[in-house]
Task: inverse folding
């Protein structure tokens, strides 16, 4: 059963359109991530679901309850939507203790004091915050504050929990631990979560499905594997992963294989939507699929090495090919200034029509 | 890269020449602030006025005052008034600030300048307004009698005065509460709404508790202003004979029939003994409030809280207050200025007249008062801002003992109500023979105004100064500019808009001022504010009404210019 259904949602700030007909569903026990560059509308979408932004068209349903319907002028205020929201800044109330922060939602629901104590203690235990109830937010570390924010959103068992860049205020090392922990928690407690992030690694690690937003529209949605290995548009291919990009013109397309021709080179790859003979095209290859080869061959481009950078577990080679730059990983440094052959395997190359 | 031409090292002035301007500024400020107060202090321990040959040192003055039951009843009244107005102004100001600052209340941008009106209109004028609007035969009282058969309010009692003082001091709370709310991120409120709190719950359990330090500061401020009240109790307390400390002081002369300077000085010292600790407390609280504001941080994008059904409650509170604190007194005094007389059975149209204004313009002392008031606001205001700026530069980015000295020096006049300061300056001009020729000139009035508003002016200047980023000045220093040159060529040009805004605000404050001039008033240096006090004593209600309207217009011009050029009316 869909816990959350958004359909054809439109929203604008003044004259500026922010959401242009977004639709999504969230099933029980699933984590769906909203991914996209800044300004794509992902946070606005999350806030609209929470009731903190006002769309003018479309519908939002939680379970069977209509929370927003532009056509029927239904707009349930945020405080009656019964959702949990974890803010990017955590937004812990600095004048309340951790216990009172978490208990606030239960007090508003008129739960008896003894039950509140049990419920809050349990959720604090679950999130390993058991000893910290009497402290104030500023006495906690960033990671602890983040868990308090989560506890506060979970304690009254909302059907859907919304996470707005929940890990972005943690430092890099903590963030990797926290995302594993968060994913495990969500699965264990069978939560339905909608999560905004701009970090694709985080989105892929945590989510069952990813929705990639661009200019207020959903560009593509699917499992993390689909998003990474089968991008349907140039934008998606470019946004996910780190890429080599080569511009040229499409020389030939047949049997799903396109050939892109540039200044003195030719590259064959998987033809994507819009790639047709004669149009300007772009080849995209994930950097980890590029390989330095020792001799000429098909889909091997002769390029001059600019530099080899040591990045810890390997070397990253930077080549120049006319105006373009190519990157590939390797185990040993290469001689600067020498010419090498960079192999871009045919099944790893996607050829898109270039944006006008 | 080395320069390919020879460059000499920056020329340094002698250490003495570099220090002279600052030393002079500090000296003049200290003299202007401390000499009047020391004179009061000295006088309070004499048995007769300081010019009297028979004077001796002694505690007679204190003995007399403490034995006078009127003094104690005035003291009690002042306390009751201060507590009462704090109890009214703080909750109301906090709620209005929340509604205006954090919610989607319709039309609030238009209302904001109106909320600040009571803090710009002279309390004397407001008091007249209440008398002619809501006194026993006031416009609104008479209309209420026509409609309901009775007007169920009495504004001449202590309770009535406390209500009026409370309502008219809402802006003071509003200003501090709303700037504290501004620095509060909207995420904490949104988190409360997500948890299920209604707008009312959000305000009472999250937003207002979070600005508790600012509200505490505002409470102490209003309580302190309660002890300073002069215009309201002078006008409203008169009919039933209620005295507060300041009006007790004012009436002392009449009481004994002889110049009783030593008694006045003793009362003045008693008042300062109450207000000075309150000023020190305010300073501490303000620093705390600021520190508290910075730890919250993360004030991201502001998002207004939708009020929903609560909108009607908010609108009712807001407009009821605007009606009572702005419309009633201002409309009352304006109506009164355009009628010959007023009472039960008088029709507004029949009684309409312009004679009151003719009477003002036919009388040279009144026209001179108007002229002087404009002069002291414009030219006097500009010179005052120049003085404040000089003092500001004397402490700007210097963290030595002298800066701390000035910090505290500036607080001293804050603790001295205008009435006392005017009295003290009168004595200074009498006490030092070389100054005597200046006593009856506008200079004496200007000096007293400038010192009375020193703390206010310094706050305006330092707000501007702190907006100049340190690096801009440090950049000039590393290039080789002296402190004086940095002040003149970097900092001063950067704060010129702030200074213009300060000038405008000081203009409005000087137009509004009334109590400081009461004792300094002499033929030749009349100003509207002090003139109103003396005319009111003489019972010339027609002229008082007309002059009050002119006074409101002068402040209104300043307000209109300030709004037009987007001058921030508060910090």
Result:
């Amino acid at each position: 059963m869909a816990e959350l259904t958004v359909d054809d949602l439109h929203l604008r700030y003044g004259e500026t359109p922010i959401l242009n007909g977004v639709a999504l569903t969230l099933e029980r026990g699933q984590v769906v991530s909203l991914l996209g560059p800044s300004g794509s509308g992902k946070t606005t979408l999350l806030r609209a679901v929470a009731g903190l932004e006002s769309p003018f068209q479309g519908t939002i349903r939680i379970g069977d309850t209509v929370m927003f319907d532009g056509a029927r002028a239904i707009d349930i205020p945020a405080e009656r939507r019964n959702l949990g929201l974890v803010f990017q800044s955590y937004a812990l109330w600095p004048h309340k203790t951790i216990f009172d922060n978490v208990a606030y939602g239960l007090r508003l629901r008129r739960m008896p004091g003894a039950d509140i104590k049990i419920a809050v203690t349990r959720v604090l235990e679950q999130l390993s915050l058991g000893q910290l109830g009497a402290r104030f937010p500023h006495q906690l570390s960033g990671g602890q504050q983040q868990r308090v924010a989560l506890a506060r959103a979970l304690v009254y068992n909302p059907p859907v929990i919304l996470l707005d860049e929940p890990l972005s205020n943690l430092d890099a090392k903590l963030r990797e631990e926290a995302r594993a922990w968060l994913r495990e928690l969500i699965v264990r407690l069978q939560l339905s979560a909608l999560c905004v992030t701009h970090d694709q690694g985080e989105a892929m690690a945590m989510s069952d499905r990813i929705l990639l937003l661009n200019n207020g529209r959903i560009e593509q949605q699917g499992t993390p594997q689909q998003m990474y290995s089968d991008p349907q548009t140039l934008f998606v291919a470019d946004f996910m992963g780190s890429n080599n990009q080569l511009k040229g013109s499409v020389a030939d397309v047949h049997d799903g294989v396109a050939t892109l021709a540039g200044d003195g080179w030719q590259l064959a790859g998987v033809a994507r939507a819009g790639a047709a003979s004669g149009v300007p095209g772009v080849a995209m290859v994930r950097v980890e699929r590029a390989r330095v080869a020792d001799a000429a061959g098909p889909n091997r481009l002769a390029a001059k090495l600019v530099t080899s950078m040591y990045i810890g577990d390997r070397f990253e080679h930077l080549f120049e090919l006319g105006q373009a730059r190519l990157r590939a990983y390797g185990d040993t440094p290469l001689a600067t200034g020498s010419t090498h052959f960079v192999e871009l395997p045919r099944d790893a190359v996607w050829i898109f029509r270039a944006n006008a | 890269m080395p320069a390919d031409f020879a460059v000499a090292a920056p020329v340094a002035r002698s250490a003495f020449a570099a220090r002279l301007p600052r030393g002079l500024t500090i000296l003049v400020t200290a003299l202007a602030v401390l000499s009047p107060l020391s004179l009061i202090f000295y006088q309070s321990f004499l048995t007769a006025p300081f010019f009297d040959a028979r004077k001796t040192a002694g505690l007679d003055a204190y003995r007399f005052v403490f034995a006078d039951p009127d003094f104690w009843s005035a003291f009690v009244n002042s306390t009751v008034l201060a507590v009462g107005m704090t109890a009214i102004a703080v909750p109301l100001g906090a709620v209005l600030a929340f509604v205006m600052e954090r919610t989607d209340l319709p039309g609030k941008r238009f209302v904001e300048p109106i909320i600040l009106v009571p803090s710009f209109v002279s309390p004397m004028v407001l008091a007249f307004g209440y008398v002619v609007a809501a006194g026993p035969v006031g416009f609104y009282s008479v209309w209420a009698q026509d409609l309901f058969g009775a007007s169920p309010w009495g504004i001449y009692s202590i309770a009535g005065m406390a209500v009026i003082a409370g309502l008219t001091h809402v802006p003071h709370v509003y200003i501090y509460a709303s700037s504290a709310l501004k620095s509060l991120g909207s995420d904490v409120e949104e988190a409360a709404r997500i948890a299920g709190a209604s707008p009312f719950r959000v305000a009472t359990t999250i937003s207002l508790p979070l600005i508790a330090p600012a509200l505490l500061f505002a409470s102490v401020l209003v309580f302190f202003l309660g002890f300073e009240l002069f215009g309201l109790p002078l006008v409203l307390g008169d009919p039933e004979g209620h005295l507060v400390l300041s009006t007790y002081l004012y009436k002392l002369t009449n009481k004994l029939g002889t110049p009783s300077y030593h008694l006045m000085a003793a009362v003045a010292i008693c008042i300062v003994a109450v207000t000075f600790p309150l000023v020190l407390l305010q300073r501490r609280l303000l620093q705390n409030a600021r520190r508290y504001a910075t730890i919250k941080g993360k004030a991201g994008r502001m998002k207004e809280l939708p009020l929903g059904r609560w909108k009607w409650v908010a609108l009712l509170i807001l407009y009821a207050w605007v009606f009572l604190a702005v419309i009633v007194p201002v409309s009352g005094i304006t109506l009164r200025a355009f009628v010959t007389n007023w009472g039960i059975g008088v029709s507004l149209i029949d009684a309409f007249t312009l004679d009151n204004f003719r009477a003002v313009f036919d009388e040279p002392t009144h026209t001179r008062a108007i002229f002087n008031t404009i002069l002291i606001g414009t030219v006097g205001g500009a010179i005052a801002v120049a003085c404040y700026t000089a003092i500001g530069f004397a402490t700007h980015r210097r963290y030595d003992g002298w800066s701390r000295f000035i910090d505290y020096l500036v607080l001293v006049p804050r603790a001295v109500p205008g009435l006392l300061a005017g009295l003290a300056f009168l004595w200074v001009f009498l006490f030092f023979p070389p100054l005597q020729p200046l006593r009856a000139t506008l200079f004496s009035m200007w000096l007293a105004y400038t010192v009375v508003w020193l703390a206010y002016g310094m706050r305006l200047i330092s707000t501007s100064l702190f907006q100049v980023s340190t690096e801009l000045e440090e950049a000039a220093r590393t290039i080789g500019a002296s402190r004086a040159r940095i002040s003149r060529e970097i900092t001063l040009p950067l704060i010129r808009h702030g200074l213009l805004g300060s000038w405008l605000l000081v203009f409005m404050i000087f137009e509004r001022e009334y109590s400081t001039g009461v004792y300094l008033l002499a033929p030749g240096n009349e100003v509207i504010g002090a003139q109103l006090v003396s005319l009111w004593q003489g019972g010339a209600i027609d002229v008082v009404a007309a002059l009050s309207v002119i006074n409101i217009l002068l402040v209104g011009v300043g307000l209109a210019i300030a709004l037009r050029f987007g001058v921030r009316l508060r910090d």
Summary: The first strand of chain A starts at residue 2 and ends at 13. Chain A has a mean pLDDT of 91.
